[in-house]
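Illustration 12: phosphopyruvate hydratase.
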Amino acid sequence: ANYLSKFSKAPAICKLVGRKVLDGVGQPTLEVEIYCTVKNYEKRVCSTVMSSHSQIPENALPETTEADEKERNDSVNTAVEWVNESLNTMLRDLEPTEQCKVDKMLGEYFTKKVKEKKETQKQEEEEEAEATLALTSCTPSTTALPGKKKAAKPGKKVAVAEKTIPPAEPVESVLCGSLAIGGTSLAIAKAGATISRIPLYLHIALLKGNQDSPKEITLPLPMVTLLNCEKVSPAKLKLVKEVMLIPPVQLSLKQGIERVLDIQKEMMRLLEPPGKAPTPQLADSKKGRAHNTGKKAPPRALKRISHLGCLITGCDNLEQPLLLMQTACNNIGLELGIDMYLAINCAAHELMDYVKGKYEILTGTFKSPDEMVDMYVELINKFPFIIALIDPLRKEDRQQWNNICCNLGSKCYLIAEEAATYISKLKVDQNINLPTCSGVVLKYINQTKVSDLVELTGLLDGQRHITILGSPDGESSDDSLVDLAVGLGARFIKLGGLSRGERVTKYNRLLAIEEELAKNRTLREAHLEFIAFAEESQPEKQLSDVLPPPKQDSLPLQRSQPALQVRSLPAQPPENSLLT
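Figure caption equivalent — predicted structure in token form:
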């Protein structure tokens, strides 16, 4: 039977099913199921659930949030319709292993939909203009002060008042229903891996390597979010959105996660309100729970878990969360900078006051883009265990991005997340349309296709940028993101904290892949390099030339620090030299 089955027809797609489901924060999102004809029988092969990503900042007005929710609902409903009708017909009888062909068809379909949308908008604008013209001809007295101009004036004032900084680039509009493209592409990739009887990460690696099987695979290092700094009163600190832990590379992933959990437990103890820490078993007593003898109730800090799966706390200054992390590590015998490293998500784009032309880093404290660069230089010099800053500036402040890279590129990663433009724009003319930075956080959202990620990570690798696969705000229980990160050779993976099922699922998948690769002896040891952004190429230097001793020349370091290297890269633009 097995012998004869080799001669059977290759499995082909027979049906796509789109369904509206909920993501990890209760928002609607899209599920795509793939059915294939396998040996003349219709069989459900796999499904994928897309993560939803909101562009609305945390401190948005309720009206803005409501409008976003309505738009999201409409988008998901349209995506379900696309999958069940157009895409179902279009992809029928194709083989799920033909990823490039499928993605090309999906791309053409999306382009057609974008064109239709533009034509519809143009038609609506013309009709609106005609209606306005008819109205003004009837009532000439209103021509001086039409309602539209009145509404536009305050917006203009904000733009004019902002003189010293470049204005914010317009947010790229997301086509209603675009989730269908990303969801279908990823579902096809999962189906192709299932049909080929290989893990998804290997299937992705084969796509990136033009079907050349990799001899060894390096796992991405996790950026585990431990603290989410709230930006509402009475907290004063606005600059830090997330404080993340990065385990050193000489630890296995399992050891690194266990170490992060130890730090998290100590952090929860430190955040316990005064007077309640000695008796954690009474923490929930006011809820009327019965006392469990021999069982400890979870600490109160567990009640304040962010949607990112981490602890929420408020801080009054920039150093407070860093000193808190340092205390937590010291209390359990760990040293930051040796046994664990930090990354900070600054989310600077949320802090800009366009009237003043400055960032509000603390309540009532403002800094210009140039002052922000000086502040970060001082911060990294004082806390050298911070090895990554995410979105330290808006993407529009390109000159300051260049300055901060020249100052700090040899000491830590300067990473663009929201500061990176959308994937659709990143591929323009084979150039990475980014501010000067060390790397980019990529998110699998909307119309992103698997082929886009394969092509884009190849471009980033060629331009010596590091790739980080990031988890969106509204994460789903689908763990495909981990396989994507491993298969694409991402340097880091940013999944949020070690709480909430939709996030822990992905850490569990990462641990399972590590175990599988170790068993097959195809797990390659990770190493990290910093990039010195200089005008002229300089010889490579070890991290020990930048940070305190001991000095080690060989790449696989034997001491308890990760293998980190510094290499030089020409700065853009060339007028600015490396500041040492």
